[in-house]
Target: GT2 family glycosyltransferase
Amino acid sequence: MVASVSEGSPTVADPEARVTAPPAVTKCAVVVVNFGSHRLLRTNLVPLHEQDPELIIVVVDNYSGAVERRAIRDLCEEHGWHLVCPPGNPGFGAGVNRGVVRALELGADQVLMLNPDARIDQADLDILRAAVAAAPLTMVAPVIRRPDGSVWSDGHELETAVGRIRSVRTKRPVHGPVVPWLSGACLLISRELWSRVGGFDERFFLYWEDVDLSVRVQEAGGEVTVMHDAEAVHDEGGTQHRSSDVAKSTTYYRYMVRNRLLFVGIHGDRRQAAAWLRSAPQEAWQVVLQGGRRQLLASPMPVIAAGRGLIDGAGRLFAARRGRRAESVTDSGPADAATSTDRIVVLQSVPRPRPTTNPYNVMLADELRQRPDVDLRMFSWREALTQRHAVFHAHWPEILVAGPTPMRRAVRQMLFTALLLKWTAQHTAIVRTVHNLELPEGISRRERLLLQLFERRTVGRVRLNPQTPVPADTPVATIVHGHYRPWYAPFERPASEPGRLTYFGLLRRYKGLDTLIAAFGQTVADHPELTLAIAGKPSSVELAQSLLDLAADDPRISLQLDFLDTRELVEHVSRAEIVVLPHTHMHNSGSALAALSLDRPVLMQDNEVNRQLSNEVGPGWVHLYAGALTGEVLCDALDRLRREPPAARPDLSAREWAPAAQAHVDLYRRSVAAVSSRTLSEVGGRQ
Model:
C-alpha cells in the first residue's frame, strides 16, 4: 500500500558533516534521454563533460525523426558519448532503463539521470556523488532552480489519501499521510540501489514514473534525499512538443491524468483506489488549469487530452488491481502455477537446441534460463501434455500442426487440439512472438482452423518493432530482435571480397530470389566482375530446381542449396561486400541482424521498419531502395558503399539480450494476470 512507506519530507543531510568530493574509486555515468532536443544537450551537457572528462555520458535517443537521429548521432560522435538508439519511442522511463543498462556495462558505480533541459555543474554533482558513496541505498537530488533563480524543486510529497502531489514548501493544508518523492529531472542513484528496485516502471511512459521510483526505493529499504547545498537549473518544459495554441503539450495533460490512476492501481489499497478515482475528474481539471484558462479559448485539445487520460487511466487502474489480485490467489485458486511471484514456469514452443535451431531462440532461452524467477522448459510433446505451465510462449506455432507425412500431420493436429483444451482448463497464458503477420501460404483448412483457434486463445504478444499491428485489448510488449555478436564471436571471419553480393537464409518463394537473380543478370554488361552467392535450404524441391534453372546461364552466380551451420554462415556472410535481402514485404529480418552482427552492410527495400533500422545502426550500414530491385539498384548501392564506407561498427546497443529477457518476463506476468482476472470474472459471473 502507498501508506506503508515512511511518511514525511525528503531527508536533508547535515551540510556541515557532508563530504563534498566523490571518492576516487567511484565511476559515474550521466544518462540523458533525448527526444528532439539535441540542441539542449549541446547547451547543457557539453559544459558538464568538459568540466569532468572522466564522466561516462550515455545518450538514449527516443526516436523523434530521422533528422534528429542524425543530429544526435553527430553530437555523440563529436564528444565521444555513448549512444543508445531504440527503434521507436518507448517512453522516458524505458529510455532511462536502456541507458542505465549501458552505463552499468561500462562500469559505472553511480548514475545521474538528467533531463535534456537541465544542467548541473561538476562541483554540485560531486556533492551528490559523495552523498551516494557514503550511503549507497540513498537516492539523491539537488535543489533545482529555474533559469531566473527561483526554486523549481527542493523535494515533493504525495498525499496518499487524496492522490495529490505537492511541493514541500507549499502552505496548503495536508490531507492525511504523505510520502516523499524526488523529481526525475536530476537524480543520482547507486548501482546497488538501482539493481534492488529494478529501474523505472515502463508502464508509465511519461510522468509519475519518478513518484513510483521514489516509492519503490523506500519500500526496498532506501531513502530519498534532497542535498540542499547542491543545485541544478531546469528550463521547465524545454523538451515539451506543443502546438502554439496550447500552453503545455497534450502529452503532458494526458499522461499526468492517466498515470495518477495507474499509480494508485499499482500501489494503493481498495479504499485509496476508490478515493482517487472519485476525485479524478476534479484533479484532471486542475492539471488542465496548469496551462491557464486562456489556452482553452484557442483550442479544446487540453480538455480532450485530459479526457483521454481519464478513460485510459481508469482502465489501467482496474487492470493493475486485477493483476495484483491474481498474484495473491492461493494454490487452491484457478491459476495457482500461473501466478507465482517467485518462479514462473514457461514452456517455449521450440525444442532443445539442435544445429538447425534459430540462434534467436537459443540466445533468448539462455538468457531466460539464467534468471532466478523463471523455470524455462523447452518443447516436447511429453512435456507439453503432462506438465503444468504458467505460460506457453510460441514463436512459429504453424510448426506444431505441420508434418512431413499425412499421418504425422494428423497425429500432431490431434495432439495440438488436446493442448488447446489442456491450456484452457489449466488457465495457461499463451504468449506469441509475432514473427510473421500472416498465416503461412499453402496450409490446409484444418491447419488454418487450428491456428486461428490458437490465435484466439493467445493473450500476450511480443512484437519485434513498433509497426506490428496487434490487438489493443491484450498485453503487448515491443521487444526488438536481439543481435548475434556473442553467437558468432568464436568463429573466424574471413575478409570481405570486393564485388561479392550475398544472400542467405531459408529460401522461400516470397523472399524474391527470382527477382534478385534477374536483377543481378542486368549487371553483366557494366560490372562483369561482380559475383552473387546464394546459400540456404529451399522450402521445396520445386523451388530449388527453379533457382538452379534461373542461375544456369550466369557463371558468376553460385548456389549452395542446403542448411548452413554457424561456421559456414559466418564465412559466407563475412566474404560479402554487401548482403542483399530482396523481400518485397519485409516486416522483421533476422538475416539483416545476422549480417549487421558480422559488420556487413545490407541492401533492403525502403519501408518504415527498415528506415528505423537504418537510423538505429548508423550511416552506411543499411542501404535502401524504392520500387523494383534492378541491376542499377545493385550497382548504385555498391558505388555508394565504396564512396562513403561506414565509419564505425553498427550500433546494436538497443538489442542486448538481458533487457530483452526482462521485458519477456514482464510480459509473461502481465499475461498471466490477464488470464487470472478473466478467470476470476468468469467465476464471479457464474455465482
Q: What stands out?
A: The chain has 23 helices and 24 strands.
